[in-house]
Amino acid sequence: MDSIEKWFEGALWQSRLIVLLAVVASVLSAIGLVLMATVDAFNMLSHLAHYASSELDGAGRAVIRRETVTHVVEIVDGYLLATFLLIFGMGLYELFISKIDQAENSDSASKVLLIQSLDDLKGRLAKVVLMILVVRFFEYALGMKLTTPLDLLQFAAGIALLGLALYFGHLADKRH
Q1: Which candidate, 133, 119, 115, places its Cα nearest to that of 175?
Q2: How far apart are CA 32 and CA 37, in angstroms?
Q3: Which of 89, 92, 100, 110 could form a disulfide with 26 if both were Cys (CB 3.0 to 4.6 A apart)?
């Protein structure tokens, strides 16, 4: 009976290695998102050459400016999402597989990437999600048409709620 229990516990312990699939998929997805956002950044910069054209009137420049700001927000969003996936993948690896020795022994390693517990991972991911929401709200606000006082009130309430969320996130950081 003792040997069956040892075999079962060994198999159970080794089953944690399935998390490697999620780690690899997360890191590869992060790399893909960084590449996508970088390509978008270069494409956006190439479109900016039209902005300096003498043939362009004020309305045309305004359109290019609005589109450029929207593209910048989308690029930032892509990089933030890649960061989320990278923190998630590295956190899963540290929690289920092994500590990352290079990160722990490096002076230049960010403490963001050192995950000690599931609460650490959850807290770091929550911060990135909050930043993604802030960027998304900004992107939404750029295209918003405020036509009634109620629209303006709802927009102000959204800003107030985002500020409150950032404040509570800051309070949580102070506690740790």
Answers
A1: 119
A2: 9
A3: 89
